[in-house]
Queue: 3 jobs
Job 1
Amino acid sequence: MKTYSQFKKETLKNRKVRAAYVSFGPEFDVIVALIRRRLEKGVTQKELALRVGTKQSAIARLESGSYNPSIAFLKKVTSALDAKLIITVRGTEGVAL
């Protein structure tokens, strides 16, 4: 079984996949962080949905990237995973505003 890092490295060799990955930037980073945290905690999508007060299908949509969640929803999900949502806005110079 491949690790996530191995899978990512191999998959990003494909130009089309790499372009899509780069275009999603922050959205994809959020999804990866949530999935990674859920797996670290040993929580299924269904269990997470129960903790958040939603349906498993909503968690699946979130993790697939086909859902544009509100900040309030992301806060509920991160809280249910014993994590904290932190949003940083940076200028083009890389400096936090």
Note: The longest helix spans residues 15-40.
Job 2
Amino acid sequence: MLTPTAQEFYERVTWEGDTAAAWRPHDDRLSPVRMDPRIRFGLPAIGGIRTEILREHSDAGETDEDIAGEFDLPVDSVRWALAYEVSARTRAA
């Protein structure tokens, strides 16, 4: 029996047998953002592309659709990445 907080963490982990292989930092199960030590050194990424890179393109004025096309990602994935980056900035401030 896990506490609610421990259960929430457990459900965000991608398990390979008894080993934690990756983690979903967002509490929404639909989020494609993953932190996997085998991809981009465990930094938050979608489809192997760091969320920070996608944010930099957005900050430079590119639309979500342009970013999605440039990185061959669904527009929804770009939006998840940008939402993650906003929440990460908020936590860091």
Note: The chain has one domain: 24-92.
Job 3
Amino acid sequence: MTVQRHKVTLYGKADCCLCDEAMEVLHKVDAFVPFDLEKIDISGKPELLAEFGLKIPVIFVDGVQAFKYRVNEGRLLALLSIE
């Protein structure tokens, strides 16, 4: 039986201190509950800038928006513990 890893996607951009903070939490949690991480830079992508703009970082877990601005470590661990 293969265990499927969760996919976490962070939408953000360079020079974003909240994005950097979110990445720190994601890396910390990944050490306990490994997941696939995708980081998407919204810079230069008009459709993503229109959708997320100044609301970054935005973090999705398995395609569902879970966090905006800050990542709650406990809540992320709980989400990743769901099979």
Note: The CA atoms of residues 1 and 10 lie 29 Å apart.
